From TrEMBL:
Protein name: O-methyltransferase
Record InterPro entries: Cation-dep_OMT, SAM-dependent_MTases_sf, SAM_O-MeTrfase
Tagged with keyword Lipid metabolism: no
One Pfam family it belongs to: Methyltransf_3
GO MF terms held by the record: O-methyltransferase activity; S-adenosylmethionine-dependent methyltransferase activity
Keywords, sorted A to Z: Methyltransferase, S-adenosyl-L-methionine, Transferase
GO biological process, one term: methylation
Amino acid sequence: MDFLPPDLTAYAEAHTSPESDLLRQLNRNTRAHVMAPRMLSGHMQGRFLSMLSWMMRPRRVLEIGTYTGYSALCLAEGLTDDGLLITIDHNEELESFARSYWQQSPLGAKIDFRLGQAATLIPTLNETFDLVFIDADKRNNALYFDLIFDKIRPGGIILADNVLWSGKVIEPVKASDQDTSAVLAFNQKIQADPRVENVLLPVRDGIMMIRKR
Ligand SMILES: C[S@@+](CC[C@H](N)C(=O)[O-])C[C@H]1O[C@@H](n2cnc3c(N)ncnc32)[C@H](O)[C@@H]1O
């Protein structure tokens, strides 16, 4: 769902730095050849992730939900020289597609892909993260938040995508709609957590931006 009228979205994109040729190609080929291309962050959100990465100059970034590797490339842009982005996805069919784009970028050497279930892999990571992007199965947002919290430095940032869930967060929820219930519960959990400060940004499908105190 677009929250802004299409012509305002177009205006905002026209006044946002363009995607690199590589990202544009990755965006276009995901739309042409991969299932569910709406999952890709895209131009505007990608530039937001890049801007935040440049502002923070993170040494360690964790992404939960790689898909075709678009947001990984954006988040890797501001990494320090010795920086590393670990990205997790359980869909092995997308790995070679994502890698074929990462290999065309100098940032590819800083991207460490881990294949598997996020809930299994996160506890095995012995890193302190500056920035985490939660963008996998929304039902597990709260679980991923709990699993990563102690691995984030004070002042570190967690982003969770799709927290407006196409607007369903303000509609009556059907008992059978577990995804919407999970997004609502996650948003409430963050809002009530005294260990963090947060702002729900209405960018694309909604990004919850969380700072660990
Ligand atoms: C919304 S897409 C990620 C989009 C990507 N971050 C981007 O912006 O271009 C979600 C991804 O999470 C992965 N995923 C879903 N559940 C998962 C799980 N339990 N463990 C690991 N990956 C999972 C899916 O395979 C899918 O590729």
